């Protein structure tokens, strides 16, 4: 066989190996992984009262993810930023294309350095976020605030909070209603109960929303118009809300959490700190008493967990969406109707799988190089030429 033909054949094989590994790891791998996911059937839902079995098109298709942690200018290495943000962008865009959710919730910690980033760096982070999580007009994107976005309680101030709310054009505490379903968004960073100005403002808004929801329920049950005590209240669909927030409600630890996305076994028994890892007992009880939610969805811990509060209020902790925080990111698919809901979890490709594919491709390239050396000149001659070239370079 002519020498140039062998070289061309080796070059083609190299291109196929390198290009194939790159295309699979950076694009293709997300499709078979997310194709395994499907919207849960609401007929198998929990929390329903006489509305189970309604057709899927009457339920809200909600995608819930958390803790994207876009790296900033201070602590983010450029390669780490490039790698993990590309992973989230491809995962999100593939999920949108395959699953077509009506609404997407991100449960806080959108940015990693929002608590201390300058205005210039903040604008750069926001620009990258809008590029990564771009979406069509058919999908509504709703973002909650987290401690990394505006700082922990002792770091947050009006400037950071209003900067965040301005970017996403909405208050950090509000109700989003879709197809008769109430989604309650809570600024959990401000629930320390110490009377700080932001805390007072958020609690005042929560009390108002609680009154509005309770009046909506009472008005529906009485059927005789708006009650005198509810004059001036805003009416919502008469259903208990789905409550979404960044901090989980109070729990001692993750000791009772199981599943492949739970915290590592060595971390599950570590005690949580109130007002840092989870909300305080007092704030948690107030939220449950005010709203009596049929489901709570939270983030912050970067790991998955299911908790039942007071034996009737289920909470799901949503794991981080980023490889930076865990090897197996995931998100929640929720089918929600006014009287029922169903949940399923969708796992993304594991970072270790991608690394394994690249290592395998590298091993193949090494074998091809050795085979080429043996074919063309013999292994000893190839090594001697390599050593000679190294000697000349010195």
Give structural notes.
By secondary structure, the protein is an alpha/beta fold. The chain has a single domain, classed as 4-Layer Sandwich (Purple Acid Phosphatase, chain A, domain 2). It has ten helices and eleven strands. The chain has helices at residues 3-28, 30-35, 78-99, 119-132, 147-150, 158-167, 197-222, 281-291, 351-376, 379-393; strands at 60-65, 103-106, 140-143, 174-178, 181-186, 242-245, 295-298, 305-309, 313-317, 330-337, 340-347. The strands form two sheets. The chain has a six-stranded mixed sheet. Strand 1 (60-65), helix 3 and strand 2 form a beta-alpha-beta unit. Helix 1 (3-28) packs antiparallel against helix 9 (351-376) and helix 9 packs across helix 10 (379-393). The chain is elongated, with a radius of gyration of 26 Å. The chain starts with a helix and ends with a helix. The model is unreliable at 47-55 (pLDDT under 50). It is found in: Endoplasmic reticulum-Golgi intermediate compartment membrane. GO terms for molecular function: metal ion binding; phosphoric diester hydrolase activity. This is Metallophosphoesterase 1. Belongs to the metallophosphoesterase superfamily. MPPE1 family. Its cofactor is Mn(2+).
Topology, please?
Elements: H1 3-28, H2 30-35, E1 60-65, H3 78-99, E2 103-106, H4 119-132, E3 140-143, H5 147-150, H6 158-167, E4 174-178, E5 181-186, H7 197-222, E6 242-245, H8 281-291, E7 295-298, E8 305-309, E9 313-317, E10 330-337, E11 340-347, H9 351-376, H10 379-393
Parallel strand pairs: 1-2, 2-3, 5-6, 6-7, 7-9
Antiparallel strand pairs: 1-10, 4-5, 8-9, 10-11
């Amino acid at each position: 066989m002519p020498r140039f033909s062998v070289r061309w054949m080796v070059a083609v094989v190299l291109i196929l190996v390198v290009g194939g590994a790159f295309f699979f790891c950076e694009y293709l791998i997300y499709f078979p992984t997310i194709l395994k996911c499907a919207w849960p059937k609401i007929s198998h839902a929990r929390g329903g009262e006489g509305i189970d079995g309604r057709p899927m098109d009457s339920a809200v298709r909600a995608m819930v993810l958390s803790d994207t942690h876009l790296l900033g200018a201070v602590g983010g290495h450029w390669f780490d930023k490039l790698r993990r943000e590309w992973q989230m962008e491809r995962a999100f865009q593939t999920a949108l294309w395959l699953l077509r959710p009506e609404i997407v919730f991100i449960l806080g910690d959108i940015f990693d350095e929002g608590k201390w980033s300058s205005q210039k760096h903040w604008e750069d982070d926001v620009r990258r976020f809008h590029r990564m999580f771009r979406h069509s007009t058919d999908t509504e994107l709703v973002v909650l605030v987290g401690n990394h976005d505006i700082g922990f309680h002792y770091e947050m101030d009006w400037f950071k909070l209003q900067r965040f709310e301005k970017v996403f054009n909405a208050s950090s505490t509000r109700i989003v209603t879709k197809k008769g379903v109430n989604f309650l968004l809570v600024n959990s960073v401000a629930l320390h109960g110490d009377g700080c100005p932001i805390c007072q403002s958020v609690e005042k808004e929560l009390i108002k929303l609680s009154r509005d929801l309770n009046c909506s329920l009472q008005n529906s049950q009485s059927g005789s118009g708006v009650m005198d005590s509810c004059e001036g209240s805003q009416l919502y669909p008469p259903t208990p809300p789905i409550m979404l927030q960044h901090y989980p409600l109070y729990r001692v630890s993750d000791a009772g959490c199981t599943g492949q996305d739970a915290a590592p076994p060595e971390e599950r028994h570590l005690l949580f700190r109130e007002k840092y890892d989870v909300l305080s007992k007092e704030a948690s009880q107030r939220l449950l008493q005010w709203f009596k939610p049929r489901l709570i969805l939270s983030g912050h811990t970067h790991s998955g967990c299911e908790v039942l509060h007071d034996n009737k209020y289920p909470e799901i902790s949503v794991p981080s969406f980023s490889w930076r925080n865990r090897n197996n990111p995931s998100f929640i698919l929720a089918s929600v109707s006014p009287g029922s809901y169903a949940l399923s979890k969708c796992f993304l490709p594991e970072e270790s799988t991608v690394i394994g594919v690249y290592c395998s491709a590298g091993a193949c390239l090494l074998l091809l190089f050795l085979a080429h050396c043996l074919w063309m000149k013999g292994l000893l001659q190839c090594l001697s030429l390599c050593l000679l070239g190294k000697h000349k370079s010195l």
